[in-house]
Amino acid sequence: MAGQSRAGGLRLWRNARLATMAESAAGLGIVEKGAVAARDGLIAYAGAEADMPAALAQGETIDCGGRWITPGLIDCHTHLIHAGNRANEFEMRLAGATYEEVARAGGGIVSSVRALRAASEDELVAQTLPRLDTLMAEGVTTVEVKSGYGLDLDNEKKSLRAARRLGGERPVTIRTTCLAAHALPPEAKGDKDAFIDLVAGTILPAVAAEGLADAVDGFCEGIAFSPEQMARVFDKAKALGLPVKLHADQLSNLHGAELAARYGALSADHLEYSDDAGAAAMAKAGTVATILPGAYYFIRETKKPPVDLFRQHGVRMAVATDNNPGTSPLTSLLLTMNMAATLFAMTVDECLAGVTREAARALGLLEGTGTLETGKSADLAIWNIERPAELVYRMGFNPLHARIWRGQ
Ligand code: DI6
Ligand code: FE
Question: Does the C-beta of 176 come closer than 6 Å to ligand 1?
Fold first, then answer.
């Protein structure tokens, strides 16, 4: 805070090694003797210390002792707002049931819906903060949070209001996504089309009118909604001026990747069963592929997302936790990177870009965060490491030295 009052809110981190993740640079955008200056919460300089304008050295100065600075990490796909947990279903699956069998037996997403509906908004915030704190302790400065366990107007709004409140409780950027088309609630009595009418006709317009969501998402899957049903949700989202995302091709290939691309989606997520045509369509539309190894690992999926196809077509890849009580009770982006590398053979550079620059792109935030570049939010993570690969290599070890959000 002292630095904020001095020299126009100037702050300088010097004697650091930078992985700027800038698009224009090769690889990680490494600067060996680097410095980052922040003014009023924005990056005023990031680059070689020797080339920094002298005027920027007037404020509070922090000697980083040769530590590495990356952009603050971004978790671009979470269901962080939920109530209770599903450890009981985990035990069922350990005894041999599949995720789809558990869902069809009345467990799955619907059991989290019951728990969320019974919780107050305050309780949701209180139950979610420990998960958010765990992400932040690893240098996360931006988190996307979906609704999708409310599945009626009041409970979807409650979820999104609770998600928005997280940003007031902690120094972190929260982006909210309305995932009302996540599952069919029990009161819909099996009528998916009528529920989609409710989502498109009532829930989305109300959520948009109150400014509760930054984007709209859906689950396109046999156990959830068809591509035609999702298209109706997306048509409404577009009419309301909200960008879209999609849980696509996670358990089967319903060509969700193409559907997402057709609507210019910010991202299509999961994608284990996507094919060449899906990757080509995403590349053309600039839709980011969000890779979610936590869910793949936790439900012991065996079909890997077609990372090679994404590379061949030039599809950008983000990496996220998918934190949720059913398929990915994961609150570590560092471990998520390790999984993406170990399970899917993503490179260190791809993993680090996936939790910074590409995650920002998947949220439509690349103008404002995700790389160390002048004019962006001063969101930084400072690490006790010798080389960036350590962030991907270790499992269950947190080398964070300091986390800076908007210059503080
Ligand atoms: N795909 C998933 O993996 C999660 N949601 C989705 O659309 C699962 C959510 C849950 O089981 O609670
Ligand atoms: Fe998800």
Answer: no
Please give the distance of CA 46 from its chain centroid, rounded to a whole number. 25
Question: How much is the mean pLDDT over the chain?
Answer: 96
Separation of CA 327 and ligand 1 centre (Å): 6
pLDDT digits (tens, 9 = 90+) for 56-82: 999 899 999 999 999 999 999 999 999
Give SS3 for 205.
helix
Nearest listed ligand to the Cα of residue 149: 1
Q: CA 176, 178, 183 angle in degrees (round to 5)?
A: 135
pLDDT at 233 over 60: yes
For the stretch 369-395, pLDDT in tens is 999 999 999 999 999 999 999 999 999
Identity (one letter) of the amino acid at 232? R
Distance CA 346, CA 249 (A): 19
**290 beta partners:** 269, 318
Please name which of 310, 312, 172, 337 lies closest in space to residue 248, comparing C-alpha atoms: 310
Rg from Cα positions in the chain: 21
The string over 343-365, giving b where at least 16 C-beta atoms fall within 10 Å of a residue's C-beta and e elsewhere, is: bbebbbbbbbbbbbbbbbbbbbb
Q: Tens digit of pLDDT for each residue in 167-213?
A: 999 999 999 999 999 999 999 999 999 999 999 999 999 999 999 99
136 and 170 Cβ atoms separated by less than 8 Å: yes
Q: How many residues does the chain have?
A: 408
DSSP 8-class letter at 72: P
CA of 324 from ligand 1 middle (Å) equals 7
Each as own residue / partner, the long-range contacts of residues 189-194 (CB below 8 Å, 24 or more positions apart, any chain) are: 192/225, 192/226, 192/229, 193/229
If you measure from the C-alpha of residue 12 to the centroid of ligand 2, how many angstroms do you get, rounded to a whole number? 38
Q: Looking at residue 4, what is its pLDDT?
A: 39
Beta-carbon neighbour count of residue 7 at 10 Å? 16
Which residue from 111, 247, 272, 327 has its CB within 8 A of the most atoms of ligand 1, so it is best to mutate? 327
Question: How buried is 121 (Cβ within 10 angstroms: 0-12 exposed, 13-18 middle, 19+ buried)?
Answer: middle
